[in-house]
# Entry
Amino acid sequence: MELTLNIDNGLYETLEKYAKSNHLDIQGLIINELQKFVPDQSIKFFAHPSAIIDQNCTIGCGTKIWHFSHIMVGAFIGENCNLGQNVFVASNVQLGNNVKVQNNVSIYSGVICEDDVFLGPSMVFTNVTNPRSHVNRRNDYKQTIIKQGASIGANATILCGTTIGKYSFVGAGAVVTKDVPAYALVTGVPAKQIGWMSENGQRLNFDNMGFATCSETNDVYKLISDIEIQKVN
# Structure
């Protein structure tokens, strides 16, 4: 049996003050106290009292949903995700495991984020290429895919119908109008590729033989072409 953790504002504020005064993690405090009374049940996810969680959506274990966020019917959110303040997740959106969504992000129908995706503060998705207020285009939503490990910087805009490649990095404020290759670093308006990034988010500098080493992990990458690299170990 799974138990969804959602408590009223008064109790939450009391526990929050206690946690801060004792330098404790508020989520861990609540979960630990509640499990004393329901040891045979699992806490599925944490939702702040101000969050709105519609019926018939799926939210994985360990996920945290913060102030004033809204999860609509039919949305799918994986395990151990973190959705910041004022996040909107529309119907039929899919978020994989360990997805981090910062404050003020709206994720519209048609968006799929694979595991380990990072969405920076106030970044923007779209799902229609030619919107008009007086024209209903609900049947024209285009799919946008954010591949595993990709990061999208603050205030970036992703036009619908694009694919953001595995472990790619979209710089803050960029406007992406076309597909981004795996591991690519893109910036600007419109976004253009200016380099490559490792899986740990470090800039890669390739030598004359076409090899680069991540400064953080020492993983080695090989330049295959102008639009493709591969991790070789």
